[in-house]
Every structure is written in C-alpha cells, then in structure tokens.
Design a protein that fits this description.
The protein has 283 residues and is an alpha/beta fold. It is built from 11 helices and 14 strands. 35% of the residues lie in helices and 22% in strands. The two termini are 40 Å apart.
Length: 283
C-alpha cells in the first residue's frame, strides 16, 4: 500500500512536469534545466549511501547538495546571454569571472532535500537569473529608461518624453506578443526583433536596464494561451507573427515590415516595451 501510494504520487508529479514542459519554455541538459518562462535554472544532486550507516557518518544531504551545486554551475554556463554570447564565453574570455559566477551559484535556493524511498539523498537547487546576475552579465547597451534614445538608423522611434506626451490612441496596446512557433527559436537573456530590412524594432537599446534586470527583456513560452496570461503583457497585447530567425544562432526574430510599422506607430506600446512587456512564443 505504501509503495502503491508512492508510485501514484510519482506518476502525478511526472505528468505535471511534462505538462509544464509543453507550456513553459524549458531547456533540458544532463546537469539541469533552464526555465525561460520564469527565468531560473534548476539542478539536482542525488547521493546513494554505500552502506546503511553512511547517513550518520558522512551527511549524504551535504554530499547531494555539493553534487547539485556542481550541476547548477554547469547548467548556468549553458545560458545564452545573447545571440553571440553564452555565460561559458564570459568565463573563457576572462578566467577571473569564474569565482563571481560561482558566488551566484552558491547563493542558490534549496527547494527540496528529502530522502528518497531507497534511502538516497536528493537535493534540488534553484537560481534566479534576474537581479544581481542579470546586472552582471547583461550587455552594456541596455541602459536606464531615461537614457534610451532613438536609434540613428531608425528615427521613427520616439524619445520617452514624446511617448509620455502623445495624444490618446485608439488601440492602446499593453504589451507585445511575438508568435514564433515553428521557427525553432533559441531563447536568450538579450535579443532583438528586426524588420525584413534588418532594422531593430525591439532590442537592447529599446529596453530599460532597470526592467531587464528585474524581470528579463521578455518571457518565453511554448503555449500561446499560457503566454497570454502572463501579467507582463496585461490584457491587450499586440500579437504579431515571427517570419523567420536570424541564422545560425536562431535567437533574434524577424517580423514583417507591416507588423514592424504597427509597433513603431503605437507610441504607448513602445513605452510599454521599454518596460520589457514582451512575450515570445516558440518551440
């Protein structure tokens, strides 16, 4: 009866995890997962006692935690910062960065530390990619809101004071949702949305650093219905279709010139996008 209940609970847990994988944008590696919908990484450590008395002798929970920390670091190195930069590149380019990266890992949160039915010890650690870590790795061209100015190559983008003083619009879009399903999108902490001519519609210079650090430049999902419930885009987002990706990385999204014009002409939307009220749906 005890094992029957255990396997029932395990089946329910696996079903829930599988459902989340289909809705949230989760990348899986041998060492852990990156949840791009909620912007955190997660890793597990399991320690199997060699003898029945090892739990009292060697503290298997501490050993499992160290395994989880090692896995979390390896998972963090797989995080894409942009289309041309991974966290591992930051470490390879400057080895003095590794201790700082390890500091963020060591401050991760333990969200589970039970004993498994076979008396193995399990620890699950979770690290938020927002906040201090984002401040550390995000590109310098993501600046504070009041210092973000129009791009020379895209003069149609207004300055913040122009956004604030714009007359009321018929369609006040509360955010932007880009439907990039079917394009094999690769999520990243920093990315661009481009028109068919290669001009930026949204990207690092359009986002306020304050909001990019606090909540990320965007949230990624696999399910559009779940994406529409994300509070960052509120109740009236502009929904546009991604045409293709910039190859070979597959991080930056290209939209039609017509949709680009819709975005650029919606001043209130541009103001909201500077607050990173952007969601991308991909698979």
């Amino acid at each position: 009866m005890h094992f029957g209940l255990f396997f029932l609970l395990l089946t329910c847990l696996i079903t829930e995890i599988h459902a989340n994988d289909l809705q949230e944008f989760i990348e899986s590696f041998d060492t852990g997962t990156i949840n791009w919908s909620k912007c955190y990484i997660q890793s597990e450590g399991i320690k199997v006692p060699v003898t029945k008395n090892q739990r009292e002798c060697d503290d298997p929970i501490a050993q499992a935690q160290q395994i989880a920390l090692d896995h979390l670091l390896k998972t963090l190195l797989q995080v894409r910062v942009s289309s041309h930069l991974w966290v591992r590149d930051i470490v390879q380019q400057d080895h003095s960065m590794l201790p700082k990266i390890k500091t963020y890992v060591n401050h991760s949160q333990m969200i589970k530390s039970p004993y498994l039915p076979d008396v193995s010890s399990q620890v699950i650690l979770q690290m938020n990619l927002h906040g201090d870590f984002s401040e550390f790795v995000l590109p310098a061209d993501i600046k504070q809101l009041d210092s973000v100015i129009s791009l020379k190559q895209n003069p149609s983008v207004p300055k913040q004071d122009e956004l604030d003083n714009t007359a009321p619009q018929k369609n006040k879009y509360s955010g932007l949702l880009v439907d990039a399903r079917g394009l094999f999108l690769s999520p990243a902490m920093s990315f661009s949305i481009l028109d068919e001519s290669g001009q930026q519609v949204f990207g690092p210079v359009f986002a306020s650093r304050e909001y990019a650090i606090k909540q990320g430049m965007c949230a990624y999902y696999r399910d559009i219905e779940v994406a529409l419930k994300d509070s960052r885009i509120l109740d009236n987002p502009l929904i546009i279709k991604g045409l293709k990706l910039v190859v070979p990385r597959g991080v930056d999204v290209i939209i039609s010139n017509g949709d680009a014009q819709k975005v650029r002409s919606a001043f209130e939307l541009l103001s909201n996008m500077r607050k990173c009220r952007v969601v991308i749906v991909g698979n």
